[in-house]
Design a protein that fits this description.
The protein is of the alpha+beta class. The protein is built from 27 helices and 7 strands.
Length: 701
């Protein structure tokens, strides 16, 4: 999952809760949400020019709330300090939520200019709270005297999370160190913004081809490409966007090798073209500032600071897992390349396999070995039907119901809204934004517009969204997607399920607010429902005939389940390793391009593969602190996911076994961050996750 942190606004999640009301006359963006479901975001009333005034109003409101806490002369208690802090900042949360939607899904040059002004201001405000000495001393007093308050386990967890968040952000530092940390955070916020703007610029570029140059692509892809070109005033040509959802079909099916190479280079060089949008100099500055900040906070490197609160605990443990998987994955890649080279040689192609050939020849190998290719599967993968399938799987497994709702404010006509039910009761709202468009960042992600809570006895239901970048089909044509994109759809929906399942008291501990290398595990498990016969037989329907995917094709997909795992693992793991190595390099003077090239060579990176996210376009790591020194999290979480999946697979009801699903809901999905993740998983499985499960799931055992 890739949840966007609003400009690194707050170092502590406890500073983004919600219950207060905006004063009459304040900008609409800060006012309490109205409408059904306890209120919904006022997307229909948003004006970009209102954001700055709304943030000023929200910051002033939160300053007053913090001042009330610090001015209280009564002895600090859990209620008058921790709960009071938990309930502060409602206006800030509301405007930040809407601003995040516009920043990631509806960016414009005007918004980008506003963001440049807002980013340092918001970073400074976060530090203003995190470095408030009186506030921190009250928190510390409660933390050190917690035995007197007879806290519940959840209250104890909230106290720890709050205190730890302040300490890690630098609340206990000297005045001089605090000043420098605040200056670094302010500078980083500007650099993160510049990185994102540069990347968005490159991703908004388009290549145009003739129909002959795109030979091999499906009729649906060509129709969509023709429509996009026509809309851009290039009638008779075919547009290929600079997105993964466009790049992958071209490099998989285009028979014209020059076309494959051109599209591949266009995509992998985002942010790395030596022009005004080049990100290398920005990355260099970010790395220097991160290590300085980590040293000021008492950590050897930024990686040590980041991983401390994760399941891995240390970057060395994270590196150990990655390095244990890497050799087997590389070995498999060499085997895959050898198989592809044999096919190319047999066809007298007179080539050596290059990165832009990998997907193309992998499909030929899959066809030869399993009598299966992507074009055979894709006609059955209609986006709308798969969305029905992911809803259905959640209903069968966890008892959810999804009912389309008309009339809720949306930020774009493409967005569909659903109320979410369980046991006949509305427990959440789901927004679905599936299509690519100008101004929308690439990839797929889940957002929590509002997290679940029950603080003060008032039940607040969650509002979540799923966002993707599928290419719209021509009018009247279904959107057909790849198996990889279908897996991503189910993955991100797994994050939504996690957020919707939350049943905690305090918003800070709600839903997906868990360790980064744990939060991906439920979503990775959710990918497994896509390949179950129950989903495919009902929802993998041929877009022309309407007939379900035949049993023999289902069997082929199952048989080929671990095909191309070398490529998938090395593509991802190379990015994760470079991320960690960059942040373990300390104060080294790093040239990002050279570092990437040299470190990959030391690792023995197969020349036929490029990193899934090359450094100049690695938004997970350089558009915020979000996944910095944390991209390994997907692998760590996949160990847990693989082990969890075996619990389902071994049960009498398989992935729809109600006993295992009930334990998953009780011990994992509903508890948020109210319990240490390692303990939560032990409660579910009866033991720690078995690392060998990962190797089994990838066919490396």
């Amino acid at each position: 999952m890739d949840r966007r942190t609003i400009m690194g606004l707050m170092a502590s999640a406890s500073l983004l809760p919600a219950t207060a009301f905006a004063a009459e006359g304040d900008p609409v963006l800060t006012q309490a949400w109205t409408g059904p479901y306890g209120g919904v975001p006022p997307f229909d009333k948003v004006k970009v020019e209102d954001f700055e005034a709304a943030f000023d109003t929200a910051m002033n409101a939160q300053r007053k709330e913090i001042a009330a806490i610090t001015a209280n002369t009564a002895a600090p208690t859990f209620e008058n300090t921790i709960v009071a802090l938990e309930t502060a900042g409602a206006e800030m949360e509301r405007v930040s939520t809407v601003y995040g939607v516009w920043s990631s899904g509806l960016s414009t040059p005007t918004l980008q200019e506003i963001s440049k002004r807002l980013s340092p201001k918001l970073a400074a405000f976060g530090d203003e709270i995190n470095q408030n000495e009186v506030l921190f001393q009250k928190i510390r007093t409660v933390y050190e005297g917690k035995a007197a308050f007879k806290l519940t386990p959840e209250q104890d967890r909230l106290l720890w999370v709050t205190h730890n968040g302040f300490v890690r952000s630098g609340a206990a530092l000297s005045p001089e160190a605090k000043t420098r940390v605040a200056a670094i955070n302010k500078e980083l916020s500007v650099l993160f913004n510049q990185f994102s703007d540069n990347l968005l610029h490159d991703e908004e570029q388009t290549l145009y081809f003739s129909k002959d140059e795109l030979a091999g692509l499906s009729d649906g892809f060509l129709a969509s490409a023709a429509a996009s070109a026509k809309a851009a005033g290039k009638d008779g040509q075919y547009a290929v966007a600079n997105t993964r959802s466009a790049m992958e079909p071209v490099t998989t099916f285009a028979t014209n090798r020059a076309t494959r190479e051109k599209v591949w280079r266009f995509y992998v060089n985002r942010g790395d073209n030596g022009d005004a949008s080049d990100n290398n100099a920005i990355i260099k500055k970010i790395l220097k500032l991160r290590v300085e900040r980590a040293n000021l906070r008492g950590y050897k490197t930024h990686a040590h600071w980041r991983v401390e609160t994760a399941m891995a605990k240390t970057p060395e443990a994270a590196m150990g897992l990655m390095e244990s998987v890497w050799p087997a994955a590389v070995k498999r890649v060499h085997e895959e390349v050898a198989d592809m080279q044999k096919v190319a040689d047999s066809e007298k192609a007179n080539i050596t396999i290059e990165p832009w050939d990998y997907r193309f020849y992998a499909e030929k190998v899959r066809k030869a070995r399993y009598d299966l290719d992507e074009n055979e599967i894709k006609p059955y993968l209609q986006l709308d039907k798969l969305i029905e399938g992911m809803f259905w799987a959640a209903s069968q497994t966890y008892g959810f119901g999804f009912r389309k709702v008309e009339g809720l404010p949306v930020f774009h006509p493409d967005v569909t809204t659903y109320e979410v039910l369980r046991d006949g009761k509305v427990i959440g709202v789901h927004y679905l934004d599936p299509y690519a468009r100008k101004g929308k960042r690439s990839g797929a992600w889940m957002n929590a517009y509002r997290s679940q809570s029950k603080e003060g006895g008032k039940a607040i239901i969650p509002i979540v969204s799923n966002n993707s970048n599928f290419i719209k089909g021509a009018v009247g044509e279904p959107v057909l997607i790849s198996w990889d994109d279908a897996s991503t759809l189910f993955h991100e929906f797994g994050h939504a399920i996690h957020g919707l399942s939350s049943n905690v008291t305090y918003q800070t501990l709600s839903g997906t607010s868990v360790a980064r290398d744990y939060v991906e595990f439920p979503s990775q498990v959710n990918e497994r429902w896509l390949s179950t016969p129950e989903v495919l037989s009902r929802f993998a329907l041929h877009y022309k005939t309407g007939k379900p995917m035949p049993a023999e094709l289902l069997a082929k997909i199952k048989k080929a389940d671990t095909f191309n795992q070398g490529f998938a693992t090395v593509e991802y793991l190379s990015s994760a390793l470079i991320d960690m190595k960059l942040h373990l390099a300390g104060d080294a003077d790093i040239d990002p391009d050279a570092f990437e090239r040299e470190e990959l060579a030391k690792l023995g990176m197969p020349k036929e593969i490029v990193m899934r996210h090359r450094t100049p376009q690695f938004a997970h790591v350089f558009s915020s602190d979000g996944y910095s020194a944390g991209y390994y999290s997907y692998l760590w979480a996949d160990v847990v996911a693989a082990d969890c999946s075996e619990a389902f697979a071994e049960a009498p009801g398989g992935f729809y076994d109600q006993t295992v699903a009930g334990k998953m809901m009780k011990n994992i999905l509903s508890v948020g961050n109210t319990i240490d993740p390692a303990i939560a998983y032990r409660n579910f499985r009866g033991r720690d996750a078995d690392p060998k499960a990962l190797m089994r799931s990838r066919g490396f055992a």
